[in-house]
Amino acid sequence: MNFIEMPKIELHCHLDGSLRSETIIDIAKREGIQLPSFDKDELQKELIAPLDCESLEEYLKRFSLPNLVMQSKENLKRIAFELFEDAAKENVKYMEVRFAPLLHTGKGLDVTEVIESVLAGMREAECHYEIKGNIILSCMRTMSADSAFEVVEKGKEFLGKGVVAIDLCAIEEDGFCGRFVEPIALAREYGYRVTIHAGETGIGKNVLEAVELLGAERIGHGVFIKDCPEAYNIVKDRQVVLEMCPTSNVQTKAVHLYSDHPIYQFHKDEIKVTINTDNRTVSDTTMAKEYDVIGSEFNLSEEDYQQIYFNSVEASFADEETKKWCLAQL
């Protein structure tokens, strides 16, 4: 199958992990921001995590550099537009992009301005390309529960206007869900959908708690339900959808080889899996590449591809009209 030409849906992509290196250089030169190098090839070495990356912690170090240029309304709008433009050019039809607004307030922007800017970039891309999108607001697990309340409160005015869901991300610690029960409950009350990063770094029980304590409808990664029967069963029984990111999982050592990835085993056991990039720049990938590697490793059939596509559309936080449009792309 030619995955470049086939329609694709992406549900798990981080804005700050998906910048063009040329854009970082251009903004840095214009704003006097110091970079390790202004040579594209050299800068790529700082931005891309290697496949032999040692851990999630090492992987996440790649995000500090992009955030230097994501501190103004103009830059955020441009970066969001370019991400959707890049996705549209490889035939991604619908995309949910996530970011943590509080990471972009370092030079005076407030959370509202950050969200508005990203939405503006997305809307501009929708006008130029055959792609539709929505935004997921991430709260950092390295920050306090109060910071999550702030994101939930300031993001609620954008619900139904491009913001669809709340997320928890960053370093994964055992039992993190308990600290965020109240802000996530408030988010659900306001109408946010819920997706939670969990089970990425060997703690399958976190997936169980994300579903039971936080009401997660989707799980970012979820690899380690394979080692936790309770988590595995609740994901399967409640049809919680896994946003799986194969290359990222190899880089962070959730798995050591693509052939070790449980995605196809899950799929065959009727767990609802989706394929995603996680971070296009940090993982040096695209949706087509992710499908290619999983397709070749596990001999994906056209029926497998269609089922994963359907899973992605059904699990998306899009409205029904957008879902019908996405299904019609097949």
TrEMBL record:
<dbReference type="Pfam" id="PF00962">
    <property type="entry name" value="A_deaminase"/>
</dbReference>
<dbReference type="GO" id="GO:0046936">
    <property type="term" value="F:2'-deoxyadenosine deaminase activity"/>
</dbReference>
<keyword id="KW-0862">Zinc</keyword>
<dbReference type="GO" id="GO:0005829">
    <property type="term" value="C:cytosol"/>
</dbReference>
<feature type="active site" description="Proton donor">
    <location>
        <position position="200"/>
    </location>
</feature>
<feature type="binding site">
    <location>
        <position position="14"/>
    </location>
    <ligand>
        <name>Zn(2+)</name>
    </ligand>
</feature>
<dbReference type="GO" id="GO:0004000">
    <property type="term" value="F:adenosine deaminase activity"/>
</dbReference>
<feature type="domain" description="Adenosine deaminase">
    <location>
        <begin position="7"/>
        <end position="325"/>
    </location>
</feature>
<dbReference type="InterPro" id="IPR028893">
    <property type="entry name" value="A_deaminase"/>
</dbReference>
<dbReference type="GO" id="GO:0009117">
    <property type="term" value="P:nucleotide metabolic process"/>
</dbReference>
<dbReference type="InterPro" id="IPR032466">
    <property type="entry name" value="Metal_Hydrolase"/>
</dbReference>
<dbReference type="GO" id="GO:0043103">
    <property type="term" value="P:hypoxanthine salvage"/>
</dbReference>
<keyword id="KW-0479">Metal-binding</keyword>
<dbReference type="InterPro" id="IPR006330">
    <property type="entry name" value="Ado/ade_deaminase"/>
</dbReference>
<dbReference type="GO" id="GO:0009168">
    <property type="term" value="P:purine ribonucleoside monophosphate biosynthetic process"/>
</dbReference>
<protein>
    <recommendedName>
        <fullName>Adenosine deaminase</fullName>
        <ecNumber>3.5.4.4</ecNumber>
    </recommendedName>
</protein>
<comment type="similarity">
    <text>Belongs to the metallo-dependent hydrolases superfamily. Adenosine and AMP deaminases family. Adenosine deaminase subfamily.</text>
</comment>
<keyword id="KW-0378">Hydrolase</keyword>
<feature type="binding site">
    <location>
        <position position="14"/>
    </location>
    <ligand>
        <name>substrate</name>
    </ligand>
</feature>
<feature type="binding site">
    <location>
        <position position="12"/>
    </location>
    <ligand>
        <name>Zn(2+)</name>
    </ligand>
</feature>
<feature type="site" description="Important for catalytic activity">
    <location>
        <position position="221"/>
    </location>
</feature>
<feature type="binding site">
    <location>
        <position position="278"/>
    </location>
    <ligand>
        <name>Zn(2+)</name>
    </ligand>
</feature>
<dbReference type="InterPro" id="IPR001365">
    <property type="entry name" value="A_deaminase_dom"/>
</dbReference>
<feature type="binding site">
    <location>
        <position position="197"/>
    </location>
    <ligand>
        <name>Zn(2+)</name>
    </ligand>
</feature>
<comment type="function">
    <text>Catalyzes the hydrolytic deamination of adenosine and 2-deoxyadenosine.</text>
</comment>
<dbReference type="GO" id="GO:0008270">
    <property type="term" value="F:zinc ion binding"/>
</dbReference>
<dbReference type="GO" id="GO:0006154">
    <property type="term" value="P:adenosine catabolic process"/>
</dbReference>
<feature type="binding site">
    <location>
        <position position="16"/>
    </location>
    <ligand>
        <name>substrate</name>
    </ligand>
</feature>
<dbReference type="GO" id="GO:0046103">
    <property type="term" value="P:inosine biosynthetic process"/>
</dbReference>
<keyword id="KW-0546">Nucleotide metabolism</keyword>
